[in-house]
Write a structure and sequence with these properties.
The protein is an alpha/beta fold. The chain has eight helices and nine strands. The strands form two sheets. Strands 3-2-1-4-6-5-7 form a seven-stranded mixed beta sheet, sandwiched between helices. A two-stranded antiparallel ribbon has the order 8-9. Helix 1 (28-35) links the parallel strand 1 (15-21) and strand 2 (41-48).
C-alpha cells in the first residue's frame, strides 16, 4: 500500500476538515459557512460530542443543506480527543486538518497552514500562534506561560524546535493521521500526536496563524487539570510508547529517507 504522491498541487489535493463540537450552537454554523469557501474541500466532518444545546439541530440542518457536511454524534460526552478519533476515521481526504467549532481559529488561515503539504514539503503542519504574531487577542498571561513551558518540555523529548504544540490547527497527510493509534483522553491529543509524528521522523512545518481566544465566560473549556495532564503525557508518549504501538502501519524507513510521504507501508503483524 502506498501513500499517494499526488498531494502536491492545489488542483488535485482533497481536503477533509474535522470539527469536534460540544455546545457550540452560537458559532458552529458560521464555522461551517466559512469552511465551505475553502478550495479543494472534500468534506467537513462534524463530531457532536453529546451537546446539550442546539448544536445537534443546527448540524443536522447543515448536513441536509450541504453535501460536503458529514455529521455524527457521541451518545455521551467523551472529550475532544475521542471526538477527533471518531472524525479522523470518517475522513477520506489526502489532507486532514482540525478546526475547532468556536472560531478561536480563523478558517481563512487554513490555506496557509496546508500549503507546505500541498507543495510536497511537509507531512505535518502546525499553525503557530507564537511563530510570528498576526492578529491575536490579548488574554491570560498564565496560559501563555504554561503553553510555552509545555512546548519547551515537549521539545526536550522530541528534539523538535516547535513553538506551539498546543495549537488547535494541525494538518496531516490523510494516511498518517488515519493510521495513528490515539489512546489519550480529554485534551491529550495535542501532546500525543506531537510525540508520535516525532517518532515517525515526519517532515514537520509551522506557519503563523491568527488567534481569537475566548474567556471562560465566553465558553473556553480547557483548564488547570488538562494542563497538568498534558505534562504527564509528554513523559508517557515520549518515554513509554514505542513507534510500533503508535501506528497501525509503519513506513519502510530506508536510510536517508526523512519523510514517509512516498514510503511503502507494511502491515504490522501481531
Amino acid at each position: 500500500m502506498s501513500i499517494p504522491n499526488s498531494v502536491t498541487t492545489i488542483a488535485n489535493a482533497r481536503l477533509s476538515v474535522v470539527v469536534p463540537a460540544y455546545n457550540e450552537a452560537t458559532t458552529i454554523e458560521l464555522v461551517v459557512q466559512r469552511l465551505l469557501q475553502l478550495p479543494n474541500l472534500l468534506e467537513i466532518v462534524i463530531v457532536d460530542d453529546c451537546s446539550s444545546d442546539k448544536t445537534p439541530e443546527i448540524t443536522r440542518r447543515l448536513a441536509n443543506e450541504y453535501t460536503q457536511v458529514k455529521i455524527t454524534r457521541h451518545q455521551k460526552n467523551s472529550g475532544k480527543t475521542e471526538a477527533l478519533k471518531t472524525g479522523f476515521a470518517m475522513t477520506r481526504g489526502d489532507i486532514v486538518i482540525v478546526q475547532d467549532a468556536d472560531l478561536e481559529y480563523n478558517p481563512d488561515d487554513i490555506s496557509a497552514v496546508i500549503s507546505p503539504i500541498l507543495e510536497g514539503n511537509a507531512d505535518v503542519v502546525y499553525g503557530s500562534r507564537f511563530l510570528v504574531r498576526r492578529t491575536t487577542r490579548v488574554l491570560y498571561f498564565y496560559h501563555y506561560l504554561a503553553n510555552k513551558f509545555l512546548t519547551f518540555t515537549s521539545n526536550v523529548f522530541t528534539n523538535l524546535n516547535m513553538t506551539d504544540v498546543e495549537t488547535g490547527y494541525k494538518a496531516f497527510r490523510g494516511e498518517l493521521i488515519r493510521n495513528m493509534i490515539i489512546t489519550s483522553k480529554g485534551f491529550g491529543f495535542e501532546i500525543e500526536v506531537t510525540a508520535k509524528v516525532a517518532k515517525l521522523r515526519c517532515l514537520i512545518y509551522e506557519v503563523p496563524i491568527s488567534y481569537y481566544g475566548r474567556t471562560y465566560q465566553e465558553g473556553k473549556k480547557i483548564g488547570l487539570k488538562d494542563g497538568l495532564q498534558a505534562f504527564w503525557l509528554v513523559f508517557r508518549f515520549n518515554l513509554f510508547c514505542s513507534l510500533s504501538s503508535s501506528f497501525r502501519q509503519l513506513p519502510d524507513r530506508n536510510p536517508g529517507r526523512e519523510s514517509f510521504a512516498s514510503a511503502e507501508l507494511k502491515q504490522i503483524s501481531d
